[in-house]
Write a structure and sequence with these properties.
- This protein is α/β, with parallel strands linked by helices.
- Helix content is 39%, strand content 15%.
- The protein has 14 helices and 12 strands.
- The strands form 3 sheets. Strands 3-2-1-4-5-6 form a 6-stranded parallel beta sheet, with helices on one face.
- Helix 7 crosses helix 13.
């Protein structure tokens, strides 16, 4: 059996690793994950049938200014990663060109595949060029980015076994879900408050907004104050400190997901249209949850026909459309999303198979 090591020295991109494992397993690889995350298996709790091994790393050995890194780099030559040579394929889930350990891996392993989370920046780095010169390859995480940068792509959908996907919402109100830590940069939380206020003024009170994620930092405090000042506190529900399984369960039990990305409201969010994926979109797509989002974002991720879209700066219009939609309209979008999810799954396996097979031939 072919073997693959998935290496990530950070935890920020843990959520995409289960999809990599799923695709690689379909291609006949036995996967071992190298991760600094304690209890990493919890990330794939909704896929209990997924088989892989985990080796827990001490991330301080490979980055930063500390004794562990000095010892590992200068005295041991990163020999703790020598076992990577034994794998047929090494997938670098977070490709950080500025880290010396990246060059080490590039020079020591035979077939490495790097995930470029921000290709516009990554492709310009000299160490990326060195990486490719050593015979290694790269991929990106959406079809749009693949076409824009002429690179192979996979879609890191959130997957769950069927028994976890049963919708359970006993609430009388429609539930809009906003997943992730509350941060204003790249997201339109203030626009959300204004939209809820407008819907309230129109007499719409049959809904709640469920925010699933941390909100205990500065932006979260400001967000809470905005909600209070707008007089819409009763429309919001906050859940934090959830396990990964609980986090996903809350999304499954919601009616609609809102990514809160709109380049017409918040300029930094424009990067999510072309150079950086937003995990909330692939989370919703993987779980087949209908989204309410800005129309051009939906086009960029190919789900316009399976969402309730709105023009830039008009979130309340999208929310109102979803609130007034018939059950048949919602079901139709869910069916279209199911087809899209299946196509992304098959295309991702095909694309990943093509690039791994290419290692067996000269570039």
């Amino acid at each position: 059996m072919k073997t693959c090591a998935i290496l990530d020295l950070f935890s920020v991109h843990d959520h995409v690793i289960p999809s990599h494992i799923k695709y690689l397993t379909e291609l006949g690889y036995k996967v071992t994950v190298y991760s600094p995350t304690q209890g990493f298996q919890e990330v794939s709790a909704l896929l209990p049938s997924l088989e892989y091994d985990v080796i827990t790393l001490d991330a301080s050995k490979y980055q930063g200014r500390n004794k562990n890194h000095f010892r590992e780099r200068y005295l041991k030559g990163f020999d703790s990663l020598d076992s990577l040579r034994d794998f047929d394929l090494v997938l670098l889930n977070t490709f950080r060109t500025e880290l010396p350990v990246t060059n080490h891996i590039s020079s020591k392993v035979t077939n490495a595949l790097a995930v470029l989370h921000t290709p516009k920046h990554g492709l310009k780095q000299s160490r990326y060029k060195h990486f490719v010169a050593n015979g290694h390859r790269a991929l990106v995480l959406s079809r749009a980015m693949g076409e824009a940068f002429n690179l192979p792509w996979v879609v890191p959908l959130t997957y769950a076994d069927d028994q976890f996907l049963e919708y359970e919402n006993n609430a009388s109100n429609t539930v809009f879900c906003v997943p992730g830590t509350v941060r204003f940069t790249g997201r339109t939380y203030s626009a959300l408050v204004r939209s809820v206020q407008k819907l309230k003024q129109q007499g719409k009170e049959n809904f709640i907004v469920k925010v699933v994620g941390r909100h205990d930092k500065k932006d979260g405090e400001i967000f809470l104050k905005e909600i209070h000042s707008a007089g819409v506190s009763g429309f919001f529900q906050f859940l934090t400190d959830t396990t990964h399984e609980q986090f996903v369960r809350e999304i499954i039990d919601s009616d609609f997901v809102m990514p809160l990305i709109d380049k017409y409201e918040e300029k930094v969010g424009a990067r999510h249209y072309s150079d950086m994926i937003t995990s909330s979109v692939f989370l919703a797509l993987g779980l087949e949850k209908v989204m309410v989002c800005e129309s051009e974002l939906a086009s960029a991720y190919e789900f316009s026909d399976s969402a309730f879209v709105h023009k830039g700066g008009q979130l309340e219009v999208g929310m109102l459309t979803a609130l007034e939609a018939s059950s048949q309209d919602v079901r139709l979008r869910q069916e279209q999303m199911s087809v899209l999810r299946r196509n992304f799954y098959l295309d991702s396996i095909e694309n990943l198979g093509r690039i791994t097979n290419a290692f067996e031939r000269p570039i």
